[in-house]
Amino acid sequence: MGTLYIVGVPAGRADELTLRAQRTLEEVALLVTEEGTPAPDLPVGCGLAAPSVPVTDTEAILAALETGDVALLLDERRAGPSVPASGLIRAALEGGFPVVPVPGPSLPVTALILSGLPADSFICLGSLPAQPDERQALLAAVAGERRTLLILASPAHLPDTLACLYGALGDRPLAVVVVSGEGTEMVWRGRLGQAAGQVAARPDWLGCALVIGGARQPTGRWEKARLRAEVRARLEQGLSAREAGRQLSALSGWPRREIYRLAMEVTGNMDNLDDVTAQREPDREGMLNHVAALPHQCRQAWALTRDLKLPPHHQRANKVLIAGMGGSAIGGDLAAAVVADSAPLPILVHRDYGLPAWADEHTLVIGSSYSGDTEETLSAFEAAHERGCPLLAVTTGGRLARLAGEWGVPLLSFHYRSMPRAAVGYLFVSLLGILQALGAVGDLEADLQEGLSLLESWGAELAPDSPVARNRARQLAQALYGRVPVVVGAEVLAPVARRWKCQFNENGKGWAYFEVLPEMDHNALSGLHFPAGAADRLCVLFLTGQGLQPRNRLRLDLTRQILEEQGIACHAVPVPGRSKLAQALAGVQLGDYVSCYLAALYGADPTPIAEIATLKRRMSEGR
User: Fold this and answer.
1) Rounded distance between C-alpha atoms, residue 547 and residue 566, angstroms
2) How many angstroms separate the Cα of 3 from the Cα of each of 71, 91, 268?
3) Lowest mean pLDDT across 69-83, 335-349, 540-554
4) Between the ranges 263-277, 374-388, 565-579, where is the mean pLDDT highest?
5) Average pLDDT along the chain
6) CA 556 – CA 394 distance, rounded (Å)
């Protein structure tokens, strides 16, 4: 059984071949060459007796290894073995043949040493992709990288490569190192911005390495005019708005979302939202898919409660308290509003630690927590257990599910992988099913079916592939862009307004507020004047629907008129649906789509909530 030797060979001067490499090449039975890497010239007095085969002839190479040694020639101009060479090495290892490296000259390593740039940590990109879009995508991905970059370039294409690098990375330190018949040497050292006009390839250059300084922490924020010019230049080079934002953020000191917004202004995309790809591009974790899944969630949640049997102790409850936070609490708000006109017992949502004093053994306490580990909800659930309250848990698992199992209380468990707020269908409809099982409300089946039918028909008009001309969600996102949303609702649309506000915060990553009528007209209506200019940034959305109390309907109209008279941007937002349940579902669906489209306009991924995660971590650390 033979050995596969990986022999580093020079591209230029033969005397740079090491003595060990010479001896190995003279003794092996077969030489393997990669495309563009012929067998090397040896110093005077040495010769190669072995035949050579291309690296792609794997079968012949493995057969030769059965009886003798083989040398794979690794050109110094490469960053490492090519894909075929790596495949051969893997096949040899899997066949049980020893693989032994024989080091030789390396253009990448020599270039790093000669450049004088930091070499303790670097990124080798190899040769840049030939396709412009692939090349731009790669450079955009490393534009903010602070480590030294190493790129192997063809001397014939060097001027174009340097111009491309300057456009993508900006002005940075650069060293140009080449290998020729005279050996390896640094031929130019300066900055990328100067190189395109000063560095020209010579015919004797066999290979070239470019060593580029990493991005540096901005020392100051660019002026907006300069940023706009740089954004426009990159867009004209074919970069997407997202790629331009990634590149320029590290250089300019501006956040990516602000650069994305400026890019959209430059290209006019604010007036053309029909590009489905552009709408989905920032949504890297698929929040839009969860919005579209709302009908499915509702059906699944309703099915989970069809056979729910509650103990007699639960059925004797004369009050219902739903303990939850954030996306898990909004389902309680919606459920309470839907049944407010028919439920004979009070239903309240508790967003805090512990329990109010009035919660007693006749109070059904429902712990609603998507994760099952929400600390405020667990605090309330444990306090309810100590007081002897009848308990029920709605969760995907966590400590809440474990406590329910230990205490023998009913558990409504579902499985849906998402952020808590994206599982609103489960967290809303399951509570309606519980209230129906409790006997607190009548049969909601017909209202639910109306809502599901509406979600599917209207949802098709709100989806990403629906054009702006008939897509109300996209129209509203466009109206809200650059403004602070204030959402106003009454009765069953009040918790819908709250949901919109929360989704604009979490999905849209922006400030937002909600108001409830008629209460708004007793205070907020006077707060229109100060600080000066604040009202200019507002956009007030008035949610309207069938069945509202006539005086509330009148208030919606009159309040909007007064705000518009003050020069405040306002929009009436009709929410379809005959029943309260159908209206609530349709309102949630519309608001969720608007929040995702608004996030896309800002270039933000709607899913991550970094600041909330940071706060939770610090809370857990006791800080």
Assistant:
1) 29
2) 8, 13, 62
3) 69-83
4) 374-388
5) 88
6) 35
How do beta strands 484-490 and 363-369 pair? unpaired
How far apart are alpha carbons 43 and 20 in whole angstroms? 13
CA distance 554 to 537: 26
**Which of these, 475, 514, 488, lies nearest to 598 by C-alpha position?**
475
Cβ atoms of residues 510 and 481 within 8 Å: no
CB-based contact 556:490 (threshold 8 Å): yes
**How far is it, in rounded angstroms, from Cα 549 to Cα 492?**
11
Helix (H, G, I), strand (E, B) or coil at 149: strand
The amino acid occupying position 165 is L
Mean pLDDT of 125-151: 85
93-114 as b/e: b if 16+ CB within 10 A: eeeebeeeebebbbbbbbbbeb
In 399-519, DSSP assigns E strands to: 411-413, 484-490, 513-517
The Cα 444–Cα 452 span in angstroms is 12
**Residue in the structure block whose two tokens are 């008129």:** 561
Q: How many residues does the chain have?
A: 623
Angstrom distance (rounded) from CA 559 to CA 566: 11
Enzyme catalytic residues: 506, 522, 616
Cβ atoms within 10 Å, residue 565: 9
